[in-house]
Amino acid sequence: MVSGSVRYARQFGAWLQGLPRPTSSVPGLTLAAAVFIAVFLNTVFWKTVIAEADIGVARNLGFGLALAAAMVAFFVLLISLFGLRYVFKPALVTLLLVGSAASYFMSTYGVVIDDTMIHNLLETDRGEASGLLSPGLVSHLLLTGILPAVVVCIWQVRYRSFWREAGLRLLTAILAIAVLGVSVYSHYKDFALVLRQNRELRYLVNPSYPLYAAVEAFTQTAEAANRPIESLGVDARRPSPAGTPRRVVIVVVGETARAANFSLDGYARPTNPRLARRDLVNFTRFSSCGTSTSVSVPCMFSRQNRHDYDAGEARYTEGLLDVLAHAGVSVLWRDNNSGCKGVCARVPSEDLSHADDPALCNDEECFDEILLRGLNERIAATQGDLLVVLHQKGSHGPEYYKRYPQRFARFRPVCESNQPQDCDRQAIVNAYDNSILYTDAVLDDAIALLARDARQRNDATALFYVSDHGESLGEEGLYLHGFPYALAPSYQTHVPALAWLSPGFGLPAGCLAGLEDNDYSQDNLFDTVLGLFSVQTQVYRPQEDIFRPCRPPVGENRQPAHG
Prior knowledge:
By secondary structure, the chain is of the alpha/beta class. The chain folds into 2 domains: 2-223, no CATH class; 248-550, Alkaline Phosphatase, subunit A (3-Layer(aba) Sandwich), CATH 3.40.720.10. The chain is built from 19 helices and 13 strands. A 7-stranded mixed sheet has the order 4-12-9-3-8-6-7, sandwiched between helices. A hairpin with a 5-residue loop joins strand 10 (472-473) and strand 11. The radius of gyration is 28 Å and the shape is elongated. The termini are far apart. The model is unreliable at 554-562 (pLDDT under 50).
């Protein structure tokens, strides 16, 4: 096997040597690569600039040309940093391949490759990654990445002596800086106005920003690698007066559901037919902590709020589940997604995403009903209060049609591709709505399970559902999620959230109904769950507990709650 690989490698090398070889000095190849990158790997940047600055043949053409010259000069400067003999070509190949991959996902899905997206990539499982593979990706990589990289490999570079090469690199850098300066100076007002009003443009410069984001992501990971876990809420306790019923709470962490497509939140289609028959508390103005799972899930279970959220601090500080464990509440995390992002690291957890259940699973993944398999027995076998977290596969895209059994394919036709541009937008929405319809059924089944438990065992039971983030379905050319929060459309940040509570909690139905239109966010989850278990601890913030206004003081008569 090894000898065969060596033979093929030698044959490939000989083939490369036999190709016509362009020849130039380092600056020649630097300029050629800079022009290629600026023109062919930054199409999203140019489309955005042309639209925002109204650049055309008759208007602002001078600014457009100045911006093009500035971008080429910038990439000449960037490439010149790697102009050493044994570094130059590997660096160029890396820039081309990274830029090619980034440009595909930016142009196809409208995403931004920032440090959060890099973390998402590192935490993506095999199933999610395979959902993004397509013939379009392969052809794009071949034409804009692999073939240009081959040209770089066969390009014959004339290297000079060290000092002459250093001098030439310095001269190249000086010229590039001069071009950059003249370009900006010649249209300074245009540069200042466009860049000030469209700060998101810096996220679209490819591949410099994706590479910067990758460095940031790896630096954050490295800095936190050896940090000990900081304790939180070790003073937590849970008074249980005589006659207090056992409390069983299910928190369902949804995936990629947006409030705009929940009929409970006003969507015209009946995507929540079963939940609509339940006596729920539906929160109509609920926002996420982030626009991706790797941010929102750790954030909602951490003590931090969105505005001061720090991923490194959250990863190495105990969270909600740990505080509950300190208080003596049993905790179980059940996952049908790509993991708990460190949230469940110190509590019992189960990965059901590839369970052995032919009725609910295939070779790639499982449907979300797998999260309920055997759950009633787990609840019955647990002594004392219990929190169960169910992490859904939900509406994870772009292959929405794979997220639900065929019996839930109510809205047709559906897009059966992972490339949105291959489908009519309505077909994409149809597939997405079917996934929401399935989530409606899964949540209703979970509520039914809790209602039976309340009747049979007299437990106080509750379900709290919130999606981790929303999703763009083609609005303004954006697909999927992960856009920087400050720039993200509401489709990615306005998420569905609802609660069902059994009469055992004694919360007045009228009071609960009055909470539905208040402004809430995932910042409220931490204290709301602590409140459901009556956990007392210094880290509990009563003003953030959603249900506290409806919780009567001890000793008052309690009215029946939603059930």
